[in-house]
Amino acid sequence: MLNYSNSSNSKYFYRLVALWSFCEAFAGGILHLTKIPFAGLLVSTLSVFCIILIASTCGASNILKATVIVIVIKFLLSPYSPPTAYIAVLFQGLCGRLFLWNKKFISAGAVMLGIFALVESALQRLLVLMLLYENSFWKALDVYLNKLLGNKYEYNISLTLAVIYLIIHAVAGAGAGYYGYYIFKKTEEWKNDKSLIPAMLPATEILPKKRKKKKFKLFFLYPFLIMIILAAVYSYGSEKFLESEFILKIVIRFILVIAIYLLIIKPMVMYFIKKKIASAEKSNSAEIQKALKIIPEIKSIFLAAKEQSASLSGIKRLKQILKIILVNVLRN
Questions:
Q1: How far apart (Å, rounded) are the C-alpha atoms in residues 265 and 273?
Q2: pLDDT value at 238 more than 50
Q3: 10 Å Cβ neighbour count for 276?
Q4: pTM for this structure?
Q5: DSSP string of 159-172?
Q6: Spatial separation of the C-alpha atoms in residues 36 and 30, rounded to whole Å
Q7: 286, 266, 268, 285: which is closest to 277 by C-alpha?
């Protein structure tokens, strides 16, 4: 059962859930069109904002309900998302409920939520690389980078780069959490700025994403990049690691891991996820329909924000887009 402090928060709840759902299913593509870098990182950041706003506006007790609805809508609108995408949403919701339970400490909780959400996203990517290429590839990479940099001793540069990658996501997450709390405090002030309420485009129906031929890219892009790296390593005289058996081992391992994932692991995991989603959809059908009806309006707000901020670029444009979206989503 949903728990609101007043009736107006019910409206905000469904609008924020619709915004979160739209971010998960479509925001990446729209942000890519704005030519803003790190679109994937920004989608995770937008999700963090939505969770913080749900906790601040409607109460942290509603975060898990919102998470369930978002997962179901994500599946309905983007049915070919990988299992890890649903795990990420669930993890974000659980972290939101854990860290934002007390409004007295919501600023600190928002920072913790941002750190955990973005670091989890980074860890997923690193785990995939570890499973695909094992240790031998990273050893060869270390040899190449050490020789390239003229290091006398062999340093574990690949591990250093991985740690730096995680630190960048942790810092970005802390910034996202802090800014999410700042947004909540500033939204009421922004509502008085008439320039942030653009003429909305007509709301259009949101259809499920068509299946894209990503498997071809996934199956051939990584080996191609690996071959370039291996060729570079070989040219630098790392014959020790680059015997033909070594190269063959990496390619065969990659093909086997992808085949096992696509033919066995993914179907099994998705079968389980689909069963859980079907059950959640049945028990939350009314709430899901309310959020779904708002999503076309959310799309119009995104597109209007994109058009109105066209004269800006970089961080300034991103801030303007966020202001326009949130003022219009949380308007009275």
A1: 12
A2: no
A3: 16
A4: 0.78
A5: HHHHHHHHHHHHHH
A6: 10
A7: 285
SS3 label, residue 80: coil
Provide the pLDDT confidence category of residue 239 given band limits of 50, 70 and 90.
Answer: very low
In contact, 10 and 4? CB cutoff 8 Å: yes
pLDDT at 218: 47
Nearest-angstrom CA–CA distance, 154 and 138: 13
Q: Tell me how crowded residue 236 is: count the other CB atoms within 10 A of its CB.
A: 15
Half-sphere exposure in the Cβ direction for 248 (13 Å, CA): 3
Over its C-alpha atoms, the chain yields an Rg (Å, rounded) of 22
Q: Would you call 76 exposed, middle or buried from its count of C-beta atoms within 10 A (0-12, 13-18, 19+)?
A: middle
DSSP alpha helices (H): ranges in the chain?
7-22, 28-33, 39-58, 63-77, 83-99, 106-149, 157-190, 214-235, 244-260, 266-283, 285-308, 314-329
